[in-house]
């Protein structure tokens, strides 16, 4: 499905869709420092991809436009894909399952540390793919605990379907009637420190969502609702990274219905009426700023 990925070279392949925070409200902070959030989340048809192949020994390889930025992580064993592999193998052993050595290949198509859940999506895809290729079925609560141990975004990425997430991200409510949106993802390829963004928050006790999540809405109704929500991390992120404001301005100039930053940035998304409009906008944005990342895509509908 994704370019430059030879699925035939692997026994099994698994997509890792980009996670898009359509809205993010910071509603409090726990005693351990974790922030409490209300998040409206969807997933794109574009993302990373992983391949799995039985091997003589565990190994890991990388390709894709953003692979060089992960090379140090991979050699040092700190990549979330490897963490997911090891935690799942340990849990499987406790449950009496045997797990053979595996080669994992990651095609890295998403910018790194960009607010669209790339590493978390990769870890979630690893958990899904390894269960399939190893032929194991661990209890859902075991997988959920492993996912949360890897990172707060991983439980959402395990679902990879539209949802509302609360708490630190572990309290998930699926949205089965949520529509698909045509979208452009943009990133100036400038790093933004998530801890710095949270440190610059003017308030950590903001209003939570105040809408009926399962109420029936059409496409226009959801866009109107999203417009009334916010990303509380966007103002401090804009203060730390001026390119976010410029990116937002450029996307609005292309006729986007709504432009907002995703997560802690610096990726922004623009919603469009059709995929054709999104593709035209992405091409125009590439021409105007060729050193930045732009990708037209459609999000995954809740019923798919």
TrEMBL record:
Alphabetized UniProt keyword annotations: ATP-binding, Isoprene biosynthesis, Kinase, Nucleotide-binding, Transferase
At the highest ranks, the source species' classification is: Bacteria, Pseudomonadati, Pseudomonadota, Alphaproteobacteria, Hyphomicrobiales
Q: Name one GO molecular function term.
A: ATP binding
Gene behind this chain? ispE
Q: Give a short account of what the protein does.
A: Catalyzes the phosphorylation of the position 2 hydroxy group of 4-diphosphocytidyl-2C-methyl-D-erythritol.
Question: What biological-process terms (Gene Ontology) are attached?
Answer: isopentenyl diphosphate biosynthetic process, methylerythritol 4-phosphate pathway; terpenoid biosynthetic process
- Summarize where ATP binds, as residue positions: 111-121
Q: Where is the signal peptide?
A: none
The similarity comment for this entry is: Belongs to the GHMP kinase family. IspE subfamily.
Q: What is its EC number?
A: 2.7.1.148
Q: What class of enzyme is it?
A: transferase
**What pathway is this protein a component of?**
Isoprenoid biosynthesis; isopentenyl diphosphate biosynthesis via DXP pathway; isopentenyl diphosphate from 1-deoxy-D-xylulose 5-phosphate: step 3/6
Q: Which InterPro entries match?
A: GHMP_kinase_C_dom, GHMP_kinase_C_sf, GHMP_kinase_N_dom, IspE, Ribosomal_Su5_D2-typ_SF, Ribsml_uS5_D2-typ_fold_subgr
Q: Which NCBIfam families match?
A: ispE (TIGR00154), PRK14608.1 (NF011202)
Protein name per its UniProtKB record: 4-diphosphocytidyl-2-C-methyl-D-erythritol kinase
Q: Which residues form the GHMP kinase C-terminal domain?
A: 218-286
Q: Which Gene3D superfamilies match?
A: 3.30.230.10, GHMP kinase, C-terminal domain (3.30.70.890)
Q: Which reaction does it catalyse?
A: 4-CDP-2-C-methyl-D-erythritol + ATP = 4-CDP-2-C-methyl-D-erythritol 2-phosphate + ADP + H(+)
């Amino acid at each position: 499905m994704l370019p430059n990925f030879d699925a035939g070279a692997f026994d099994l392949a698994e997509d890792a869709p980009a996670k898009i925070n359509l809205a993010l409200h910071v509603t409090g902070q726990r005693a351990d420092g974790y922030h409490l959030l209300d998040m409206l989340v969807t997933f794109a048809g574009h993302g990373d991809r992983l391949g799995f192949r039985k091997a003589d020994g565990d190994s890991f390889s990388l390709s894709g436009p953003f692979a060089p930025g992960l090379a140090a992580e991979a050699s040092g064993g700190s990549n979330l894909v490897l963490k997911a592999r090891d935690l799942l193998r340990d849990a499987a052993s406790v449950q009496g399952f045997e797990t053979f050595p595996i080669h994992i290949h990651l095609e890295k198509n998403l910018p790194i540390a960009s607010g669209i859940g790339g590493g978390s999506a990769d870890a979630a895809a690893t958990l899904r793919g390894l269960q399939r290729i190893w032929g194991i079925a661990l209890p859902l609560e075991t997988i959920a605990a492993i996912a949360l141990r890897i990172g707060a975004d991983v439980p959402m990425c395990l679902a990879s379907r539209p949802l509302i997430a609360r708490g630190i991200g572990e309290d998930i409510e699926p949205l089965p009637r949520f529509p698909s949106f045509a979208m452009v993802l943009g990133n100036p390829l400038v790093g933004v420190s998530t801890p710095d963004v949270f440190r610059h928050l003017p308030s950590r006790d903001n209003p939570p969502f105040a809408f009926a999540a399962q109420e029936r809405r059409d496409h226009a109704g959801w866009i109107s609702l999203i417009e009334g929500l916010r990303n509380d991390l966007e103002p401090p992120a804009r203060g730390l990274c001026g390119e976010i404001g410029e990116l937002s301005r450029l996307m609005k100039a292309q006729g986007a219905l709504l432009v907002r930053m995703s997560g802690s940035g610096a990726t922004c998304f623009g919603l469009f009426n059709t995929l054709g409009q999104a593709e035209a906008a992405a091409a125009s944005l590439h021409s105007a700023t060729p050193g930045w990342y732009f990708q037209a895509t459609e999000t995954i509908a809740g019923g798919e």
